[in-house]
Design goal:
32 strands; seven-stranded mixed sheet; Jelly Rolls; globular; FAD/NAD(P)-binding domain; four-stranded parallel sheet; disordered C terminus
Length: about 550
């Protein structure tokens, strides 16, 4: 495939650039311009928290790129490599299609940022995110699932763990998500009769001294005061140091028992952008590719960048804020500049005055700073809804959102659990010292391999065996009567690979080499695990 212009990224910057460019170039634009995106929709991210809280439908916050960017050839796939010397990029469409090469004369980088949670042990494995519609639906399903499980639980300690929700990050995404989550849980809890007298906790953790630093201290303090009044716990000047399947650890203070953690931190440069800058020796500013005010990449006339992955100068500032407001306007300006470049006209520098910031904190309350004026409470909430409704692309979406918001005023939120449970053959687990993997007598559902660290096995109070990195345990329980014959506890920070019962039994039945390896290892090791059971034949 060959195009004059390829736009990489289907977010605000890329989609608005493509839409503007198609209008500028006219009828032949579909043969000259391609938009490459991993999803075939543009997501209106400011409203994702309301999808997670069942206030809006998922279809309300997405816009199909082929409809939004008419006149542009939309290619859905994941970019794995950009070869600047050959002026091409490699695109992976999916599992059953081959890698495609797309050639270009001009390349626009609008890939945004990615999420990297690896700096906090256990966070990639045990926390949820809120970056796209799938994340919002997963968060909603998880919250409902916790209520359903808690409604049947009689163990007080486990019950409180199920009803404790931790949100990490006190910026826009974290505050809005925490507020909407608290609203949702409080509004639907009365449908669960067994939970009427059981308190629930929503804990917001922020590393700074004030929430919402983007809107200033006074509005941040107002948001904090309102959220606390509604029952939210807020931990300021606090960092999460690690997360396990059932606990959250901090740099100071006691850990919190919780099975649900939402992470709104961890933005990192897109690795495709980083690799391109490294190979071409391009300048970067705080992980973003540096451009001229016209959004041309410095030193490359036919390479352009906009949005969260680009450091576009704004006045005397080296970079514009990485917000949807600026990404949208950068995309429009870049579309016009590309058309001007093709016509041999003078390019226009990007300029946009920050109109303000808004954040909804739930229960018809918000904080806002607009044109230097500050608002809070119901007025700010009304402004938030009015402005975002106006910004939402497409008349059809606007009407849908108006109907859903009106219905939310009069009817309870939907608690239908529609997402099927995920099918995962292997799961990574992170454990802190003292975390329990299993108790003797409990049903055994997994086979474990120790990737790093150490796990001790106990028969009552007596330690009977130590499992180290590269070793495994659990096969006797799975192949025996289906219950754990011992208790297992992490002796130090440990990473495990968990293989589900079904996957383990399939592997055991189908692989003679696997059965032989387990038997040989068992014969070579002493002492053996307690309560040995006869191995299940391969035909079982």
């Amino acid at each position: 495939m060959k195009f004059e212009i390829v736009i990489a990224g289907g977010g605000f910057a890329g989609a608005y650039c493509a839409k503007t460019l198609a209008r500028q170039l006219g009828r032949d634009s579909i043969n000259r311009v391609a938009l490459v995106a991993e999803q075939n929709v543009m997501v209106f991210q400011p409203m994702l928290a309301e999808v997670a809280a069942a206030t809006l439908s998922p279809l309300d916050v997405v816009n199909p790129l082929r409809q939004f960017c008419r006149g542009v050839n939309v290619l859905r796939g994941r970019i794995t490599e950009i070869d600047w010397e050959r002026r091409r990029l490699l695109l992976v469409p999916g599992r059953f299609a081959k890698t495609t090469s797309v050639e270009f004369k001009h390349l626009v980088l609008a890939l945004g940022s990615v999420t990297d949670l690896s700096r906090v042990p256990g966070m990639p494995e045990h926390s949820l995110m809120l970056k796209n519609v799938g994340d919002a639906l997963k968060l909603r399903a998880t919250a409902i699932n916790r209520l359903e499980q808690a409604n049947l639980e009689t163990d007080r300690e486990l019950l409180q763990k199920l009803l404790t929700f931790v949100v990490v990050g006190g910026g826009y995404s974290g505050v809005e998500a925490a507020g909407q989550l608290l609203d949702f849980l409080q509004s639907v809890k009365h449908f669960y009769h067994n939970l009427e007298q059981v308190p629930l906790r929503v804990v917001l953790v922020h590393s700074g001294p004030n929430l919402l630093p983007e809107v200033g201290v006074p509005l941040g303090l107002y948001a904090e005061r309102k959220l606390r009044a509604r029952g939210m716990e807020i931990l300021l000047n606090t960092r999460v140091t690690s997360i396990t399947a059932s606990r959250v650890f901090f740099n100071h203070g006691d850990p919190i028992d919780s099975t649900t953690v939402l992470s709104t931190i961890g933005n990192a440069p897109n690795p495709v952008i980083v690799e391109l800058c490294r190979s071409l020796g391009l300048e970067m500013y705080k992980g973003r590719i540096a451009t001229k005010p016209t959004m041309q990449v410095i030193g490359r006339e036919r390479l352009w960048a906009a949005g969260d992955c680009a450091a576009v100068p704004l006045g005397d500032q080296p970079s514009s804020p990485p917000t949807a407001q600026f990404a949208q306007r950068q995309g429009k300006c870049l579309g016009r500049n590309l058309a001007r470049f093709l016509r041999g006209e003078k390019l226009e520098p990007f300029y946009h005055r920050n109109l303000g910031q808004l954040a909804s904190i739930g229960r018809r309350t918000a904080v806002a700073e607009i044109l230097g004026m500050r608002f809070s409470g119901f007025i700010a909430w009304w402004l938030w809804r009015s402005i975002y409704l106006f910004k939402l692309p497409g008349l059809q979406r606007k009407l849908r959102v108006m109907v859903d918001w009106t219905m939310d005023l009069f009817f309870p939120r939907d608690i239908s659990l529609l997402l099927p449970p995920p099918t995962e053959l292997l799961n990574d687990m992170y454990l802190e010292r003292g975390d329990i993997v299993c108790h003797a007598g409990e049903p055994a559902n997994s086979f474990y391999i120790v990737k790093d660290g150490r796990v001790d096995l106990f028969d009552g109070d007596k330690m009977i065996k130590t499992i180290r990195a590269g070793q495994h345990f659990g096969e006797h329980s799975l192949l025996g009567n289906g219950t754990w014959h011992y208790s297992a506890m992490a002796a130090e920070p440990t990473k495990l690979v968990s293989v589900g019962r079904g996957a383990f039994e399939t592997l055991f039945r189908s692989s003679e080499a696997f059965r032989r390896a387990l038997a040989e290892e068992e014969a070579a090791e002493q002492p053996q695990e307690p309560e040995r059971h006869e191995t299940v034949p391969a035909s079982r």
